[in-house]
């Protein structure tokens, strides 16, 4: 086979998700292997290298057909040099990941932030395909973000471009401290963690809610309760949606995107989060900034990261 292929790696604290993609962004194969963070830096890097070789060995393709390897990694890094300064949940502090992996694999390796590559995946073959200016939110444990302009990731002067979860959007009187150290970040209310926190606070206050009977509340529990008519759960979801929609209105007069995509685990709730976000956006965004703007749910699900990582090699 003469087809060129690309490998994408989505590195997580528990598992390494590795995918093979063609030049059109179609996912050909995907595997998951353990990260083994407890074994330290060298073990994690060896496991990444092993997973990339394994997926090719288990496919109909050869190593010679691999044109490049991309990796999405959570943390703070120098994108051009491929140097990881710090990753909160991984033993990767001051590690020249690009150089090490290129030496192990003999292929070009490009690394970027995990939320950026998820956005790139949606832009390449998902909900943002064919869109010139795309803004993606990844609502999970935190709130990740990525901005894609004409197929390229907007990284900013220090790599903080698209860090949407750390927009200080909650008013001071309502704000709590975010994990980043700042007060009132979007992440504190629109992430799964934020939704769970608000639900636990409501139970502790004695609010009337069916969530009082749930031992360990999850974001899905809150959405299910809201769908069942629970007013407290509905209020929590609407609060998350309010700040999410308001942040989009702010972005609409900053870069004026064509489309917003909502991904991550929270997006699985569908219309119950999407519709109030759309309503808030329309309330706060100027009419001109709303023209031809769509707010949609992501299409690639958990595969966005590996597809986007592979796409780094083509950009």
Q: Please provide the ordered H/E string of secondary-structure elements.
A: EEEHEEEHEHEEEHHHHEHHEH
Structural category is alpha/beta
How many domains comprise the coordinates?
Answer: 2
By CATH, the topology of the largest domain is Nucleotidyltransferase, domain 5
Contiguous low-pLDDT stretches (5 residues minimum) are none
Task: Quickly count the helices.
Answer: 10
Sheet with the most strands: spatial strand order = 3-2-1-4-7
- Helix-residue proportion: 25-40%
Task: List how many beta strands DSSP finds.
Answer: 12
Q: What report would you give on this structure?
A:
With 315 residues, the chain is of the alpha/beta class. It folds into two domains: 5-119 and 304-314, ATPase, nucleotide binding domain (Nucleotidyltransferase, domain 5), CATH 3.30.420.40; 130-298, ATPase, nucleotide binding domain (Nucleotidyltransferase, domain 5, 2-Layer Sandwich). The protein is built from ten helices and twelve strands. It has helices at residues 41-57, 97-105, 114-125, 187-190, 192-205, 219-227, 231-252, 271-284, 287-290, 304-311, and strands spanning 5-11, 15-21, 27-34, 66-73, 76-78, 83-86, 109-113, 133-139, 143-149, 152-153, 259-263, 294-297. The strands form three sheets. A five-stranded mixed sheet has the order 3-2-1-4-7. Helix 3 crosses helix 10, helix 5 packs antiparallel against helix 7 and helix 7 crosses helix 8 (271-284). The chain is globular.
State the main characteristics.
single chain, five-stranded mixed beta sheet, 10 helices, alpha/beta, Nucleotidyltransferase, domain 5, 12 strands
